[in-house]
Amino acid sequence: MVKITIVGAGIAGMSIASQLPKGYEITIVARDLPGDPDSLGWASPWAGAVWMGMDGSPPREQKMQLDAFAHMWKLAMTNPESSVKRIEMHDLTDFKKPEDVWYYGKMPGVRGIKQFGDTNVLVDSSLRADIFRRVHENLPEAFPETPSGFQVVRDIVGIRPQRKTGARVEKEILDGQTVIHAYGAPGGGYVYSYGIAREVAELVNDIQLKMPKANL
């Protein structure tokens, strides 16, 4: 029996578990688990529940994102009870033409902000006001001019555990044990989710094929 331990129960960890062979004995170890009381100490509960290609992604990460999109699209089509749904979305960008967006044509046809290295989870009133201003400037017919005109359901500040060098998905031997690293998606854990999981599953399969077989 192949035994796998996954550290972390966010979208990456859970996606990886779902993509490994069903016959493996999988243990998930995590400080925070789905269903726990609200905690800002991890990213997945607060991340945007949407697929949107990440700007500036290198080809390898583009493939991860498209693999995740394909998986979620299939879920929406075949398993509506999963809560994954197809809805219309309008994305406002600074690109001069749609063809400049790397994922243009690869999927059927108002973000917030991110600050690299900032782990403060308190609401920044100046950024809050700036978001109100920007959404009004871009869609004045839908968003009022003053914050007092908004019905704010909740302020959410989440962390984005990204790396400047991009997602890390690779294997390493530590103290005689094989460890597969899978973290650092640049602010798009759900966008990468099943794409990273597929790469991890391929690495696990590669490791299994190279392991010596017991003599019976």
Task: Write structural notes for this entry.
- The chain is of the alpha+beta class and 216 residues long.
- It has a domain at 3-38 and 50-89 and 164-210: NAD(P)-binding Rossmann-like Domain (Rossmann fold, 3-Layer(aba) Sandwich).
- Helix content is 30%, strand content 11%.
- It has 4 helices and 4 strands; from the N terminus they run βαβααββα.
- The strands form 2 sheets. The chain has a two-stranded parallel ribbon.
- β3 and β4 form a beta hairpin.
- α1 (11-19) packs across α4 (189-210) and α2 (59-78) packs across α4.
- The longest helix has 22 residues, at 189-210.
Instruction: List how many beta strands DSSP finds.
Output: 4
List SSEs in N-to-C order: EHEHHEEH
Categorize the overall geometry: globular
Number of helices: 4
What Rg do the Cα atoms give?
20 Å
Strand order within the widest beta sheet: 1-2
Oligomeric state of the chains present here: single chain
**In which range does the helix fraction lie?**
25-40%
Question: Under the CATH scheme, which architecture of the domain at 3-38 and 50-89 and 164-210 would be assigned?
Answer: 3-Layer(aba) Sandwich
Into which percentage range does the β-strand content fall?
Answer: 5-15%
CATH superfamily grouping of the domain at 3-38 and 50-89 and 164-210: NAD(P)-binding Rossmann-like Domain
CATH topology of the domain at 3-38 and 50-89 and 164-210: Rossmann fold
Class per helix and strand makeup: alpha+beta
**CATH secondary-structure class of the domain at 3-38 and 50-89 and 164-210:** Alpha Beta
* Terminal Cα span: 15 Å
Q: Which ranges are low-confidence, i.e. pLDDT below 50, for 5 or more consecutive residues?
A: none
Provide the residue-averaged pLDDT: 83
Main pleated-sheet profile? 2 strands, parallel
GO cellular component, one term: cytoplasm
Keywords: FAD, Flavoprotein, Oxidoreductase
GO molecular function: D-amino-acid oxidase activity; FAD binding
GO biological process, one term: D-amino acid catabolic process
